[in-house]
Structures are given as C-alpha cells and as structure tokens.
Amino acid sequence: MNISDNRAETPQFPAPFTMRITSGSEDVGPACDLIAARAGLAKSRVKDAMCKGAVWLTGKRGGRKHLRKATAQLSPGDILDLFYDARLLSLKPPVAQCLHDARQYSVWFKPAGLLAQGTDYGDHCSLVRQVEVHFRLKRPVLPVHRLDREAAGLMILAHTKAAAAKLSGLLQVNGIDKQYRVTVLGRLGSDSGVIDLPLDRKPAITRYILTAYDPGSNTSIVEVTLETGRLHQIRRHFALIGHPVLGDPKYGQGNKNSTGMELVAYCLAFRCPFSRKEVRINLDKQEKG
C-alpha cells in the first residue's frame, strides 16, 4: 500500500482547540450562531459539539454547566467555553447495559472503550451520559466508584445525593464486594497471593487467586479483590511484579493484545442500603439478588 492510499483510508482531523467567548450586549441571537461565527465552524458542527457536551456556559453568577441547546439565548457577560476535538466528536461509543435498577441507584455493565465520565471535550463517549439519556434526563447520575476506560465491567451509579453518600460509605468500609477477572502475562509463582507495594506513597493491597494458566500464550487468569482503591491499582501492581495485564496500553512490556485489555469487573455484591436486601450481580451467571 502506498502513502496516498494510506491517507485516503485514514480520516484527517484538524488539531483540537479551545475557545472562550464572552457574550456582549451586541451578541443577540442563538448561542450556536455566535460560536459558529467566532470559531469559524459550520453551524451543524457546532450543534453536534453542543449536543455531545463540548460547550460549557458560565453565567454572571458563576456555576459552570453544559450548554446543549443550540437555540439558547445568551445574556451579556455569559462566558462560553468551546472544547473542540473533531476526532473525539466523530467517535461512536460502545453501548452500556443496565443490569439492575433500584430507583435510588442502578448497576450497569460498562464495555471497554467507554469512559466512566466525560471530559471538557465532551461526554457522549461516557457511561454517565448514556445513563442520563437512558433515564430521559429525569434522574441525576452520580458515579459511586471508577473503572478505567480500557476496562469492562460493573459500575454502580447513584441517582440521589443520599444514595451516593450511603453507597460511598459502604465502599469506605469494604461493604461492597468487587471481584475482577484479569489475564496477566506469564505464570505466577503461587496459586494465591497478596501484592502490598505502596502506590503514590500510600498503602495499596491487591489479593489474587490463580484460576488458570495457558502455556501456549504464557498467560495466567487471576481473580482479584482490592482492599484499597488506588489509581490503576490492579494494572500497576501486576506490572510491578513482572506480570502486566494483557493488553494494558500504559503499564508493562511484552503484553500487547489485539483484542484490548483483559480486565473485567465481573461481580458486585452488597446489602442494599435502602431495602436491606442482598444484591449480587455476576456477569458469568447474570444473577441478581
């Protein structure tokens, strides 16, 4: 394949940029028109960016929020921030699935490649936005814990501040049992173990049980539980002991994988803080309690 063929097949996007616009008394009309004129973008592109969460409004009284309505009228002194990344806006995100709806909170399967939350440049590739749309914007959506974009698995999202507080409290006292299935490079030295290497100068404890080893690919499957919640804890811990997670794009060497990162949060179990009933969701058995 020659260079010109390569260019023809690879979409070319302009470099991402940001722009701040302060509305004046002369800036009458829809917000979309003002942004399009100042940024030199087609109105259709601005509407798309607004819908996908790339435009933020700060009013004269403060408070920053998404501005999604293209026809919104501005007041003098309003501040608009555009975070424009054409490549990101063109992405079609994988679709999450609701597995348990308890009204006050819900449990979702987040596929790999989907952000837990959006960024300044948009939120259409995030679980939070998909859940907001699923419930027709009638429920607040508050993540209770995080899961890396590259990882797949179960996530709890609260729909009231009370639920967020109660579920976060359960997490802090290890009242929510989270189990992960991870494929790592190489064969571990024991059938079970504890990794207690500090991360970011803080204590970090990862427990694992070896469930299978494939000599052909030289990979091990382990079931993991965490006693602490440090950033990228599983990924960093296994990389530090010489067994990086298969497909991890950031940590480890020799662990590339064509199908992505092999880390799945496959089981959640806890006592519902409202009904007091046991809730257990397992991706293997698709069971709910």
Automatic annotation (TrEMBL):
Give one GO molecular function term: catalytic activity, acting on RNA
Top-level lineage group? Bacteria
UniProt-listed Pfam families: PseudoU_synth_2
The biological process GO terms on file are: pseudouridine synthesis; RNA processing
Q: Where is the signal peptide?
A: none
Q: Which SUPFAM superfamilies match?
A: Pseudouridine synthase
Per UniProt, residues of the Pseudouridine synthase RsuA/RluA-like domain are 104-239
Q: Which PANTHER family match?
A: MITOCHONDRIAL RNA PSEUDOURIDINE SYNTHASE (PTHR21600)
Instruction: Please give the name of this protein.
Output: RluA family pseudouridine synthase
